[in-house]
Amino acid sequence: MHDIAEFLRGHEPFAELDDRALEELADRTEVEHFASGDVILRQGEPAPAHVRMVRRGSVELVDRGRVLDLLGEGEWFGHPAMLSGLPTGAAARAAEDTVCYRLPAEAVLPLLARPAGLRFVARSLMARARPGRPAEEAERLAPADLPARLLVHEALVTCAPDTSIREAAQCMADRSASCAVVPLASGELGILTDRDLRVRVVAQGLPVDAPVSDVMSAPAVTVGPGELGTELMLTMVERGVRHLPVLAERGEIVGVVTDVDLLAAEARTPMVVRRAIDAARDVDELRRAARRLPPAVVALHDAQLGAGQISAIMAAVVDATVRRSVELRLADGPLSPFAWLSLGSYGRREPAPSSDVDSALVWDGEAPPRLTELARAVVDDLERAGFAPDPHAANAANPLFARSASEWRSTIAGWIEHPREAEVLIAVSLLADGRVVASHGQPPEVLDVLAEGRRHPALLRLLQRLAVTYRPPTGFLRDIVVEHGGEHRGRFNIKRGGLLPIVDIARYAGIAAGVTSTSTPDRLRAAAAAGILEGDQAVAVGEAFDLFMELRLEHQVEQLRAGGTPDDFVDPSSLNPLTRRYVRDAFRVVTAVQRTLSNELVYR
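Structure (tokenized):
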């Protein structure tokens, strides 16, 4: 088959064409080559009599000099103007050396009249950024959707490890750069930033003739050229860095993305919140800094980041708050080795603004009194910063969740072998989602038993029981069951009836599959790969999880915007008919999986 025909077959809306139709279309397709920076379509030019499809490389859609979208292999451009007959709404420019297929309108239009073609056009137009947006809106949304290579703006400065600090600083000043990248013999990179010059050189009186290797940070955190702005933002927040060198596939340095490139100039962005947390000189400053997270969540939602990404950023900020609180409290003197565990939704990196903070503490040997005091103080710092502790006291200040390593191991073993109460199910589920977020010394490991859960049939039965405990709120004829009294009358609990069943299913299936990640989507994918869940079921449950996460966040952001307290009770009448149908379909999918798991429990 013709190479062009083979390529078209793999992309919409050509997949349904037979071999003969594909060959005929390929014969009428022209191959075009564009160098990086070439303008392929100019904004406002007459409607084209053809469409183009990216074969290799990438194409930027540009509105008045501002990048709106980046198209990759298999994506179309020019078809909105071709279909409407109006002038082009955005320019198209090659972002790199690019090959395009040019298809004539008379050959494409009949395809777009078919159902598959209509669906393709509708999806592509709805997903695409619109030209003519207010400048401030386009500027706010663009970075999150762009890859790293297009977010590199400042000049790249590199220097050898033995370059003097004076020379490196002069190069940075000459090129208005905020950092210098230092290639190392090991193949890794070091990085010297403005902050390093202030804190490690000027403040400490280090001689400027010293080599940059004395003050640089190494190894530097690096990213690939295709990672999107949302991923870079999460990396910066999680790792507490302001500069990310971008490396091409072969290791060459493309440039450096800075926090300014990712909207750090906006006072409510999470990078600024994270920096304020790290810079807090006492617990009062820490609490004030962390309280800036809710407005940042609203800003991220307005910038159209996905709920999963926003949740991960929230978890990273709370992790940083815990670590800084521990650091400030440890200033009073040394303590025995210990680890602070984040549990529940924060452990999975899936919290919402309404989520409380579950935590645990583990140490070696006997617990010194100061460690107990530390736990109470950190929980108090979090609460005063706006992160409420679990109402059932599942936190490190509670002796039930603060134990030595040996006590934890004995307790977990007892829970697994003799699960008698519902509280045990909850405790096991919290710990199974746990991860270490702060530590001192060489902390002991206690989560390894749960991480290797597939070797423990009793634990798997316990988790499987939990997976069928919370049921979606569907009743007769699949109507959404709502509260019939009290302050939440007429609404349904999207956490208890929507998210919790999925989280519990994923926990059981993921641990049974042997995955160590606590992420719900990761667990579902692993369960499908291992055959614990059927592939189509895992995909459908994952889509339901995404839907409920988005709806929950949308609901709570509007409550934050109105100055209210976020909750999990959603009014079905506030959802449009299509969304209500999606919600009911999602409930049915989850119910079907739970029915299968219940049957397995009966016949074991």
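The radius of gyration is 27 Å. The longest strand covers residues 50-56.
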